Amino acid sequence: MAEIKIGHHSIDVDIRAELERYNWTRPRWSGDKLIAASPFRYDQTPSFFVRLEPYGDYPAGTWSDSGAYDEEWRSGNFVKLLAFLRQETYEETEEYLLGEYGWQYASGDDNVKLFNLSLRVQRNRQPLNQNVLTDYVENYEYLKSRGISERVQRQMGVLYCPQQRAAVIPWRLANKRLANVKFRTVYGKIFWYYKGAQPIRELVYGLEFAQPTTVICEAEVDAMSWMEAGYAAIAVGGASFGEAKRDLILRTPIEELIIATDNDKAGGKLRAEIEAAMRGHVRLRHAYVCGGVSEEKQGGAKDANRALELYGVDSLRKAAEQSDVVSNISVKLRIRGG
């Protein structure tokens, strides 16, 4: 555990455990550092590092990317890195860390210390004005290069920002009102969301096209990959699944969810969270893209989009056809005393 600062709070965080939930390219772990290929770029060389422990004036969690395309992403703190990995906003990751580690246990005197954390007041969320998309243009080449047809991109309202060289991916409510917008660079893996919009933790991507049987996955491009294979699909947009997302799904026509998260530790955690939250509400099946084999092994793929790129739509259809049914029956044993 290493101390990091979030606002006015200093908390102990298991930085290595948080990072180990994600697949890294050519990782080298030591006691105080992770060296790997950059997660922000299409990189195959170990040009990125994260401090697992404090080093001089640099706190634990400090990272640096020597080959960064953008100065904003050349270095930063642990919250910024984890927000990228979790595919959520900086503020949402702060809330996650405070919720996960915002307590201390002192084993020496059995004292438990709880931080007096300030709670955010829930605002009455307002949809975005559709006019925020008027500055962007129709250009479908980037996602076409990743196997997503113009037909699917048009259905989901994908646009392009020439100034930022970024794909523009609208997030909508089930009634098709605009709730948020994700921007994803076409030259690397950096993304951001429309400032001041509804948090991703309160949204589910693709709900406006939900059907009685729908695939649920992590990222928008994975959902669009399943659409290419002929399935209705929604995306969580990150590595966690809470009550807000569950309740949104329960208000849709969905009767059966095919859970198809990424083939990594974070994906496994998300898969378990979705099953726990949705079990008993809808029918559930587990689909494993490429048999659950990650890309490091022959015939594997990290996620639905990578499987689409490498093996085509049949790989996704096969995963759905071979999906495992989850029993909704829960048995409680009652022990009778003598």
Automatic annotation (TrEMBL):
<dbReference type="InterPro" id="IPR034154">
    <property type="entry name" value="TOPRIM_DnaG/twinkle"/>
</dbReference>
<protein>
    <recommendedName>
        <fullName>Toprim domain-containing protein</fullName>
    </recommendedName>
</protein>
<dbReference type="Pfam" id="PF13155">
    <property type="entry name" value="Toprim_2"/>
</dbReference>
